[in-house]
Amino acid sequence: MLLDAFGECDPDVVIFEAFPFGRRQMRFELMPLLERIEATSPRPLVATSLRDILQERNKPGRAEEMLALVQAHFDLVLVHGDPAFARIEETFPFAHEIADKVVYTGLVAGSPPAAPSEHFHVLVSAGGGAVGKELIGAGLEAAKLLPAALSWCLITGPNLPQADYVAFEASAPGNAKLFRFRRDFASLLSGARLSVSQAGYNTVCDIIRAGCASLLVPFTAGGETEQTTRALRLEKLGLAGVLPESEVTPARLAHDVETQLTRAKPAMPPLDLEGAAHTAAILRERLSLMPVRPSRSA
User: Fold this and answer.
1) d(CA 255, CA 257)
2) What is the pTM (predicted TM-score) of this model?
3) CATH entry, 122-261, from 3.30.470.10, 3.90.1010.10, 3.40.50.2000, 1.10.150.170
4) DSSP characters over 103-128
5) pLDDT tens, 49-83?
6) d(CA 155, CA 158)
7) CB burial of residue 90 (10 Å; 0-12, 13-18, 19+)
8) By the 8 A CB rule, do 105 and 275 touch?
9) Within 10 Å of residue 25's Cβ, how many Cβ atoms?
10) Where are the domains positioned within the chain?
11) Is 83 buried (19+), middle (13-18) or exposed (0-12) by CB count in 10 A?
C-alpha cells in the first residue's frame, strides 16, 4: 500500500517521521520505500523529521546503522528544535558526520493562544491519557491536601478508561474540575499559575509558548530517556521543577506544587518556536536547488 501510494502521488518531497533515528519497528515497509525512491529519476527530496532530543540507544551498532542509512538515503535531517536549547550531537554520537544534512527548524509550537476563558491555579494534564492515570489520581488527592482556595483543572486525556474517569470524577474535591479533553488547552496554560504534566515535546512547547511555570513528571517506562533529558534541561534553566515518576505520591505532589507556586513566574528565554513555518521555508529552498522534475497532470 505504501509503495502504491508513492507511485500514485509521485511526490517532490518525502518526509520520514523519526526514521532511521526511531520507528525501527516499521523498517520492514520503510526500507522498500527508500529503495523505490533511489530507483526514481529524478528522485524526490528525502528528509527525516526529528524532535530535538533523541532516545538514548544502548544496543551496540544501532547508532552506526542510523548513520549509514542517513548517509545513503537522506538529503535533510530536520531537527525540530532550537540549538540554544538542545543540539543533536548531544544525543546522537555521529552527528558531526552528517553535519551537512542537519538543519534546525526551531521548535514546532502552536500559534500564540487566545485569552483563556477560565483561570486555574494548577493545571494537571496527562497527554493522551494512556499512561497518566497515576498522575491524575495523585493530583486529585493533592488538591485535597492543599488550601481549598487553590483551583485545579485536571485533564485526563481521551484514552483514560471510562471506569477510571468515573471513579476520578466521583472523588474530585470541590475546588477541582475534571475533563477528558480541552480544545483550549494552550489558552488554559496561559492563564494558569502552574502546569503539572509529563515532559513530552508538544506539551513542553505549549508550556514555553504560554510562559507558564511548570512541574514536569517525565515518562520513563520501557527505558524512555527523552522526557527526562528534556525536563532536566528545563530545570537547569530555571524554567521547571522535576518530579520523578517513581516518586509521585499525593503528599509529594502537594509539596512540590506548593513549592513551585511560591516562586516567581519564570522568564522564558527567546527560543525559536516557529518550527512549522521554518520547515516549510527550508523545504521550498532545498527544492529550488534540485533538478526540475517533469510536470504531472492532476
Assistant:
1) 6
2) 0.89
3) 3.40.50.2000
4) EE---B-PPPPPPPSS--SEEEE-TT
5) 999 999 887 688 899 999 999 999 999 999 999 99
6) 9
7) middle
8) yes
9) 8
10) 2-107+274-288, 122-261
11) middle
What residues contact 291, with CB distance under 8 A and at least 6 apart? 42
Q: What is the pLDDT of residue 129?
A: 67
SS3 99: coil
Residue of 81, 91, 134, 168 whose CA lies nearest to 243: 134
Helix (H, G, I), strand (E, B) or coil at 50: strand
Is 17 within 8 Å of 49 (Cβ atoms)? Answer: yes
Encoded amino acid at 35, one letter: E
Q: How confident is the model at residue 298 (pLDDT cuts 50, 70, 90)?
A: very low
Burial class of residue 237 in the structure, from the number of CB atoms within 10 Å of its CB (0-12 exposed, 13-18 middle, 19+ buried): middle
**Of 174, 187, 124, 116, whose CA–CA distance to 154 is shortest?**
124
- Helix (H) / strand (E) containing 48: strand 45-51
Determine phi and psi for 279, rounding to 5 degrees.
-60, -45
How many contiguous H segments (helices) and E segments (strands) does the chain have?
A: 10, 10
pLDDT in tens, 231-284: 999 999 889 999 999 999 999 999 999 999 999 888 888 999 999 999 999 999
Nearest CA-CA partner of 261 in 196, 199, 176: 196
The residues facing 178 across adjacent strands are 154
**Which of 256, 252, 234, 245 is closest to 198 using CA atoms?**
245
Residue 44 and residue 297: Cα distance in Å, rounded? 17
pLDDT tens, position by position, 196-233: 999 999 999 999 999 999 999 998 887 889 999 999 99
Cell triple for 14:
518525502
Q: Which three cell numbers stand for residue 276?
A: 512549522
Q: Which residues, listed in sequence order, are joined to residue 77 by a DSSP beta bridge? A: 48, 102
